[in-house]
Design goal:
Rossmann fold; binds magnesium ion; globular; disordered N terminus; 6-stranded mixed beta sheet; binds adenosine-5'-triphosphate; alpha/beta; 10 strands; 10 helices
Length: 284
């Protein structure tokens, strides 16, 4: 960590908004979708904020704004103590490097013709002048960090399972040493035992690299396992924000209460048990 830090807030979002203009169609006038309607929060370094809410409530839109994929219509984004200038062409490579995103389906973002070693080395090749041999070393080191091995370096994306591909996506996101990782439904497409392994990996990496996570999920048992703070979104607004225990033990907003009632009781213990079993099996 740098000595110049004056704050322990890694991410601050101030009244951020995003509208999408939908063009007019046959018998349909032009329309504006208010996808995110003014969301504010602060997230401390090294912590995990889970964002939950029903489909279409604006979670991914918020994720895209935090990771500079979408420009906010209004509001401010302060990352690592620095106000971001999100206008096109104003973001510096240093700002971009600080924040990375992992999507639900990494296959879509992996080039099928690119070897995994090159997938991992690419951000360094584009953004740094690091020699090829060092890039290779760093990619190999990162493969090991995410629970894969040097033997995977020359393989192609189709040769991996869904869980392994998600490990590759995480490794790629970490190649530039980001501080903030936005994970948009990163385990939703995986089956339960693989989910548990990937969540466990994310927890280990967070400790090792002092990472701050914004973790989007619709699965409350996953949220309960991973979150320090929880934000509930509803129609583009944050209707609830608090520590995990506050939100789970006494949900205040009517929508959160309905959401929690509609979901089977969180089985964080069974996730933990599965993780422990897998760890014991791989250690044996
Ligand atoms: N590029 C876009 N153009 C127009 N409308 C969009 C665009 N992206 C998102 N929207 C709209 O904004 C709203 C929020 O979408 P968003 O993808 O952020 O929801 P979400 O909470 O991530 O949903 P899900 O859980 O299904 O992933 C939706 O009404 C969606 O149709
Ligand atoms: Mg989404």
């Amino acid at each position: 960590m740098s000595d110049t830090k004056t704050t322990d807030t890694m991410l601050e979002v101030r009244d951020i908004k995003r509208d999408y203009e939908l063009p007019a169609g046959f018998m349909k006038p032009k329309k504006t979708v208010h996808a995110v309607k003014g969301v504010s929060f602060k997230l401390e370094r090294g912590k995990t904020l889970a964002i939950v809410g029903e489909s279409g409530c604006g979670k991914s839109t918020l994720a895209r704004m935090i990771t500079f994929i979408d420009e906010p219509t209004a509001g401010e984004l302060i990352i690592d103590g620095q106000k971001m200038d999100t206008r096109p062409g104003h973001l510096t490579p240093e700002m971009r490097q600080k924040v990375q995103i992992v999507f639900q389906n990494p296959y879509g973002s992996l080039n099928p013709r690119q070897k995994i070693g090159d997938v991992l080395g690419e951000p360094l090749a584009i953004n740094t002048s690091m020699p090829a041999s060092e890039r290779r070393d760093r990619a190999t080191e990162m493969l090991i960090k995410v629970g894969l091995g040097p033997e995977h370096y020359n393989r192609y994306p189709h040769m991996f399972s869904g869980g392994q591909r998600q490990r590759i996506a995480i490794a790629r996101a970490l190649m530039m040493n980001p501080k903030l990782l936005v994970l948009d439904e990163p385990v939703s497409a995986l089956d339960l035992s693989v989910q548990a392994q990937v969540l466990n990996l994310l927890a280990d990496l967070q400790d090792e690299f002092d990472l701050t996570y914004v973790f989007i999920s619709h699965d409350l048992s996953v949220v309960r396992y991973i979150a320090d703070e929880v934000m509930v979104m509803y129609f583009g607004e944050a209707v609830e924000y608090g520590t995990r225990d506050e939100v789970f033990s006494a949900p205040k907003h009517e929508y959160t209460q309905t959401l929690f009632k509609a979901t089977p009781r969180a089985d964080v213990d069974s996730i933990r048990a599965r993780v422990a079993k897998k760890k014991a099996a791989s250690a044996a």
